[in-house]
Design goal:
four-stranded antiparallel sheet, alpha+beta, 689 residues, three-stranded antiparallel sheet
């Protein structure tokens, strides 16, 4: 059945009941061997050998032990890291990760951006910049029944509830104990004798505990380390705060309790008890309605804390005010924990999956899904850029930050807080940042005109031989000043955008908006519906109506062809309709419009469903080419789409093309996730084999 993790759990429970049951040790060792957890497999086989009584059984165990030891030896020989030299290993739940050296960076106070993290030495793409455990974390409400409340992995069929209140669910006894839900009292397994350790899941299972025991948080103050602090313990006893209160309020409560437990910031009467240093809250910039909401949440939280630990808290106006600022801190600084969703996490287990058939390839893509929210103290100090040079990823609760661009000494390390260039337009990005973080972004992507912001949601010129764009918003005012230093900017989306200095970028903009890129000394007003390349006029209202109708019809046909059980003529009729709607979209939207990329991808999916892979490959490639214009060739979005393309190519036995695209996936993923990305995505290893 391929349910290997469940098999390990069942064997572990059998060992709990009967520690000398050799068959359970033997079976679990076999499963560990299949999962390439050779160290655990060898330990289990030695235990099985010690408890086995029959000579025939001992001989069978010895043969299996020798095979596993040989496999382990070969694995160590072939273990190389092509991008980064690893130093030591640690266990990240189900992943055995080679941990590279961490790049050095330091905080610098700047005049225009305040506190800024800058590289101290040359940092290459793919280099690990930061790894950090959360100060506090919580699973999202919609994931409470599907994901572990401690490590945030998907729950198995036999999840483990809290031993006291039975409200939170965990993937194992180990996670439950680490969260503080053990009815017998949480103990440190290192201080127990081996006879007790082998009866506990912390020994019997390869779980996430070692991830936290080997935490490299030596860069944090000693008082901030997570030693013997249990985030669920103060919520236990029948008060299901996390299930009722908003996520940010529960996180604020955990931050408060943890700071008091650590005695890091004085007693609970001190203002600093509630508000962590170096974390901004922007309370003074909030709207009145938002402030009122924070005060209501703070009052509710105060009564919850009072009922839970009346000896610690007294409800006063000062205490409520401090809680308001603490919740505001969480709202501004909390990060979304994203877990990667790929084919191995859906349907059949990864170990039993083979190369997909053409009908299966529509699911063979990789995407990030938010499962939890957390506060990371060091990571919260990274500044924002809409075109970031570092990327955040997560294994279980741990945050990893990798460089995705070359960073010379003194370069600012910039993380994207939300939508990036290529994902949304300039005005939408600015609005989102203003509403959530109360600042106007002035990064390079928001200060210079770029092809993505011009084409993302633009229309095409009515002239068939013109590649110009027509913006869907109000008038554009263009101003050029010629002097010793040429200055040119376009006022688009109510912002003055300088033309890029890079000639290659300027040339790509000139192809679609000649009026902007020309260097004549002029001042021009461009009306709505006017082409930015040739100046001809089009009816924006009609084009918008055609685009909305065509995209809506296309999605309807997509749903019908996915649900229909008919074959042959009926599916061909639906496919012909979809191609007509795609042509209508092409007639009004610019060739680099993101909706065109979505439509091309929908058509590729339909060809997969009708078992026509050659055509599916063509439309999939067209979609990727458009996304490369909107993002860049090494963006993670491109790699995610290439996974789908490779799956189609392998279903047709096009191994040469698939190998070339896999090399490109390797290049992009190693930049964003480091050299261990293949251990995070077992499905990619299946494709590579």
């Amino acid at each position: 059945m391929g349910m290997l993790k469940e098999s390990i759990r069942d064997c572990s429970r059998a060992i709990k009941l009967h520690p000398s049951y050799s068959k359970a040790w033997y079976r679990r060792g076999q499963v560990h061997g299949n999962l390439k957890n050779y160290e655990d497999a060898i330990k289990d086989m030695h235990m099985a050998l010690a408890f086995e009584n029959s000579s025939m059984g001992k001989a069978q165990v010895r043969v299996q032990l020798e095979n596993i030891m040989e496999q382990s030896k070969n694995a160590k020989k072939s273990l190389t890291c092509h991008h980064i030299d690893g130093t030591n290993d640690f266990d990240c739940g189900d992943y055995e990760v080679d941990l590279p050296e961490i790049a050095q960076f330091s905080g610098v106070l700047t005049a225009d951006r305040g506190w800024e993290n800058q590289a101290e030495n040359n940092i290459l793409p793919g280099h690990l910049v930061l790894q950090e455990e959360p100060y506090v974390a919580i699973v999202l409400k919609r994931c409470r029944d599907t994901h572990c409340h401690f490590c945030f992995k998907e729950l198995p069929g036999d999840s483990v509830p809290c031993g006291f209140c039975a409200v939170p669910l965990f993937c194992s006894e180990n996670c439950r104990d680490h969260a503080g839900g053990n009815p017998s009292g949480t103990k440190d397994s290192k201080n127990r004798p081996l006879s007790e350790q082998i009866l506990d899941d912390s020994y019997c299972e390869t779980q996430t505990l070692s991830l936290f025991e080997n935490d490299s948080c030596q860069t944090l103050p000693v008082e901030l380390k997570d030693v013997n602090w249990f985030e669920h313990k103060h919520e236990c006893g029948g008060m299901s705060w996390a299930a009722v209160l908003p996520t940010e309020v529960t996180l604020a409560a955990r931050m408060l309790i943890k700071s008091i437990d650590r005695q890091s910031f004085g007693n609970y009467h001190d203002h600093s008890t509630c508000v962590l240093p170096n974390l901004c809250h922007h309370y003074e910039k909030m709207q009145t309605a938002d402030k009122l909401e924070l005060h209501i949440f703070a009052i509710v939280l105060a009564f919850c804390l009072r009922s839970s630990t009346p000896e610690m808290f007294q409800i006063t106006g000062t205490f409520i005010s401090k809680l308001v600022l603490l919740i505001a801190q969480v709202r501004v600084n909390a990060m979304a924990i994203m877990h990667v969703s790929s084919p191995e996490s859906v349907g059949k287990p990864a170990v039993s999956r083979t190369v997909p058939t053409i009908a299966d390839t529509i699911t063979c893509s990789v995407q990030e899904v938010q499962v939890a929210q957390a506060v990371y103290l060091r990571a919260s100090l990274f500044n924002h850029s809409c075109d970031p040079n570092i990327h955040a990823s997560f294994i279980s609760r741990r945050l990893f930050v990798h460089a995705i661009k070359p960073l010379p000494p003194g370069s600012p390390l910039e993380l994207c807080y939300g939508p990036q260039v290529g994902e949304s337009r300039l005005e939408d990005r600015q609005r989102w940042l203003e509403e959530r973080y109360f600042f106007s972004c002035k990064c390079r992507a928001c200060s210079e005109l770029n092809l993505s912001d011009l084409c993302l949601s633009s229309f095409r010129c009515a002239k068939h031989d013109c590649q110009g764009v027509i913006l869907d918003k109000a008038a554009v005012r263009l101003e050029k000043l010629v002097g010793t230093d040429f200055v040119s900017y376009a006022n688009i989306f109510t912002r003055d955008l300088a033309l890029p200095v890079d000639e290659r970028l300027r040339h790509s903009i000139k192809n679609v908006s000649h009026l902007i890129s020309t260097e004549n000394d002029s001042m021009t007003d461009v009306s709505p519906g006017q082409c930015l390349r040739c100046g001809s006029m089009s009816d924006l209202e009609i084009m918008q109506k055609v685009a909305n109708q065509s995209l809506g019809y296309l999605k309807r046909v997509q749903g019908e062809i996915c649900l229909t059980s008919s074959t042959g003529n009926e599916k061909q009729r639906l496919l012909d309709e979809a191609l007509q709607f795609l042509q209508s979209l092409r007639s009004v939207l610019h060739a680099f419009n993101k909706d065109i990329a979505k439509a091309e991808d929908i058509i590729a999916e339909m060809f997969c469903l009708t078992l026509r892979p050659e055509s599916a490959i063509h439309y999939c490639k067209v979609s990727i080419q458009i996304l490369e214009k909107l993002y860049h060739s090494d963006h993670i979005v491109i790699a995610n789409e290439l996974v789908k393309l490779v799956s189609i190519e392998l279903s047709m036995n096009k191994y040469a093309c698939a190998k070339k695209n896999l090399a490109r996936i390797d290049h992009i993923f190693s930049r964003h996730y480091g050299c261990n990305y293949d251990k995070m995505f077992p499905y990619l290893r299946t494709l590579q084999r």
